[in-house]
Amino acid sequence: RRRIVIDTDTASDDVVALLYALRQSDVVIEAITVVAGNLPLELCVKNAFVSIEKAGTYEPPVYMGAQKPLCKELFTSEYVHGSDGMGEMLLPSQKGVAQEEHAANAIVSLARKYPGEIDLITLGPLTNLALAAILEPNLSSLLSSVWVMGGAGSKIGNITPVAEFNLFVDPHAAQIVLDANLKPQFIGWDVSTDETFLNEKDMKTLEKGSETSRFALRCNKTLVELNAKYWGRIGFDLPDPTAMIAFLHPSIIEKQREAFCQMSCDDSVTQGQLVIDWQNVLGKSSNATIIEKIDGQKFKKLLFDSLLVDC
Ligand code: BDR
Ligand code: CA
To answer: Where is each Inosine/uridine-preferring nucleoside hydrolase domain found (predicted)?
Structure first.
């Protein structure tokens, strides 16, 4: 079975991504490493345990990581995910206890234990992964692959005009990941719009499906309300599940390109932007792959096949 590590700032769309991954019988999640992002760290950890319980399969170890970005104050997004990151379900606290080891150390330990075997995906700011890369300069040759939900290959940003949330929260960490030769496969926020956007019909399908699919819908309530109120859109996008499903089933990827990328880290209007040299005007070798499109119908089928049943 494929060994994977999931790094997450667990709130609504991370939750759906975790539910999906926890239900894949051909992968084993060696660790869920948690980072502050959507919410302060403790709430993200709680939501990781809630996700494990709701998936109803097995209990991977959960590790607590960075409480704040490397060089900035933490910027959270309760307005998107709810004060609890769960659409205001305000669930009681969980019985799960996080491991003692720091998330960044856990990433390094697992990479050393299974050299060349671990596929790692990040669904939040890159702080934990950057720390791991600093702790183990050889990380790039120890990991099998690194996938990052972050950036926006073809569209505008979702947190500033040009920046996507995860990379904006910790741009310095993202630059460290690029410099560490980890060759990330970026799946931007833009990939989870258009064909992969869950519309009114999809929401009805989730509502009717199972306890699990109702839960997946319910924890995105704040986002659904935000979309309706500010953009007149019925439905919601799922950036983290889009990244997760492409990571687990790369055959659904329709378009991807390699390019040289660098982060805008300075304190300006572009801070947090993933600058992609599409035309190779700098003449530098590519250091990342940008996934630009996946098959939306296949994405929804895989998602629904997993969530519409209870375990
Ligand atoms: C990303 O930002 C977060 O709010 C989501 O969980 C996702 O990881 C999308 O830009
Ligand atoms: Ca996330």
So the answer is: 4-301
Instruction: Tell me the CA distances in angstroms from 255 to 101, 117, 171, one per residue in order.
Output: 38, 25, 25
Query: What is residue 59's predicted lDDT score, i.e. its pLDDT?
Result: 97
Q: Give me ligand 2 centre to Cα 281, in Å.
A: 32
Interhelix angle 12-22/211-218, nearest 10 degrees? 150
- The amino acid present at 284, given as its one-letter code, is K
pLDDT at 94: 77
Mean pLDDT by 10 residues, the chain (311 residues): 98 98 97 98 97 96 98 97 97 90 98 98 99 98 98 86 97 98 97 93 97 97 96 96 98 97 96 96 98 96 95 82
Contact yes or no for 127/65 (Cβ under 8 A): yes
Q: Distance from the CA of 8 to the center of ligand 2, in angstroms? A: 6
* CA-closest residue to ligand 1 atom 10: 165
To the question of pTM greater than 0.90 for the whole model, the response is: yes
132 in contact with ligand 1, CB cutoff 6 A: no
**95 CA distance to ligand 2 centroid (A)?**
23
Residue 302 exposed, middle or buried by CB count within 10 Å (0-12, 13-18, 19+)? buried
Label residue 201 exposed, middle or buried (CB < 10 Å: 0-12, 13-18, 19+).
exposed
